[in-house]
Amino acid sequence: MRRLGPLSFWQKTMKLKAILCLLFALLTLAHQAWAQSDPFELEVDPYPTIGRNALEIESLNSVIPLGHHVGGLGTSAGDLPSNLMYRTAFEFNYGLTDQIEAGAQLNLARANGGALQYAGSDYRLRGSTFKPGELPLDLGWRVELEWRRKPEFDESQLDLELIPIIAKNIGRFEIDLNPVFEKAIFLGPNKNKGFSFLYAAGLYYHFEEWLSPGLEFYGNIGPLHDLDPPRVQQHYIFPVVRGELPGDIEYNLGPGIGLTRGSDRLITKFSIEFKGLVSELWQAFQS
Fold first, then answer.
1. Residue-wise pLDDT tens digits, 187-214
2. Residues 71, 34: Cα–Cα separation, whole Å
3. 3-class SS at 44?
4. Residue 183 to residue 65: CA distance in whole angstroms
5. Which stretches within the chain are classed as H helix?
6. SS3 category, 255
7. Of 131, 174, 219, 251, which residue is least crowded by CB atoms under 10 Å?
8. Could you give the 3-state DSSP secondary structure of residue 50?
9. Contact at 8 Å (CB) between 62 and 42?
10. pTM for the structure as a whole
């Protein structure tokens, strides 16, 4: 066997270092491209719509006590790290018909020690097909545009989401499934890539009108044509309580536990939704 001379050995060593550096760079780039779950929409869409001319306002809030300390990881889709991130969203929905509603959402966020900043807007249409219970499964839909102009929070500028809504009530149990097909369109670094698959799902037990314990599930497995490795996919489970309070006010709260290395370790969320009073004031204003 021919032995390598000093120069040949040095060349082989440098080639090996170059290959390792290239692999590291590729892994880093791939890591930045891994998809994140949307922390502004930690809620599961139910099947019923709000009804013609009805108006509802909802406040969605989340805090990440145990997240990642580097941007682009966990629920951070931008430059700022997810750890200690506070996010809040104000959602407005209006019933166009008995089965179709339109909505808009204003997203704000605050990084650790920073000021509250504008983080983007969402615009959506949501609808149902039949009255609840008429079919073996209740089937609805949602189409949403996500507009992001702050790369600190999300590098993707304009996303389209197509969301079937699948629901079923079995006795006191309620099951809601929201598979999400998301694609960047027209703008941003990911506009030429295909659809990614996310999901939101809920299982609830109707104990009392004001108290329904349940479990919610959220996740993102990445692009459909090239799924993320399981260890960096994001999957969360939320033990929650929800219910309806006097005045037609609904709430939902609970902690979320990350199930993979790519997830944030702990998220807490709280939402409150105003229906009855807001609709009455809106109808009085119209008359």
1. 777 777 889 999 999 999 999 999 999 9
2. 12
3. coil
4. 29
5. 6-33, 276-286
6. strand
7. 131
8. coil
9. yes
10. 0.83
